[in-house]
Amino acid sequence: PADGAPSTASPGCRSDGTAWVRAAGTIDPRSPAIFESRPVYSLVAAAFVPIAGLTAMTVSAFLAGLVFSLALGLLAYAVTRSMLAAAVALVAAYALPSGGWLAFLYADGWMMASLVATLACATAYLRSGARGWLVGVAICLTVLYLAKSANVAVLVAAVALLAAYTVASRSPDRTRVMILAMTATGLGIAQIVVFALVGAPGLWETLQDLFTHHFSSPDVADPVRQLIRVDVHLLPRLIVGLLTDPVALLLLSLVILGLVPLAIVRTRWAQLWALAGISTLLTILVHPVTSEIPRLIAESHVLVQPSLVEPLGQALLEAMACARSGGAPRIGGT
User: Can you state the angle between helices 149-168 and 174-197, rounded to 10 degrees?
Assistant: First the structure.
């Protein structure tokens, strides 16, 4: 790990878990409070405890993967009106690196599921303008905040950036994008305020947890300044690592082939997905642990999905169909 960041090792932890049991009475209450503020995964699992018993956590992870893949499949079908494209998206949801994390009993499964569901509802709103989809955005964004709040912040930043671009370019659909941005931003701020009022941990406590190895060592004087120092040390190595990783380069190529043509012709949903994928890299800056980077950026791989169901030629046809009612019905249109 980078200097000042925690190690992934757990000295003294025995495989039978007795070390954790003995240590339970000495854990700083701030550490479990951080995880209690992300209750979606555990709440879903709790609902299945009477039925599944000790495997309820596995059931929760399975359901997260189901929501994740179905959201991608339905999005692919809505855009292309092709069952084949929907099937490709369903398979790719598990075949791509993002799907690999669905097999772990982490909160990341529900984070990715709610993130994709939010983007799917936002896509439907941008394409149709139906205000009912904004309700879906609000619900999914709330679930995302309760799954992993950091991802709400970066997603709101992506939507705000898209809105700023449409206003600066005087795009005819800027009102629709602005409404989406105001909905996401307003809900994000409301969630932060509510959590602060109920005393839920915020960024300061989360950074202290990071730099004190889950509060097992004294608090650092200024965790924000410590974060900046670690980021400065980590960023150059991260860039080099991504540019020399053949898998990362392949995924980037697929995203470019599928999304850039749509983005160039101002297909808003494609621009939103592209910005959402790029914004996930910001999560690394607030959790700069080298070994955790693959998990942190796993959700960025879902941006490959539209490029798989919309290869270059089909993407161009979709963009043209969006400008002509009734055109290319098997490809899309409005």
Answer: 150
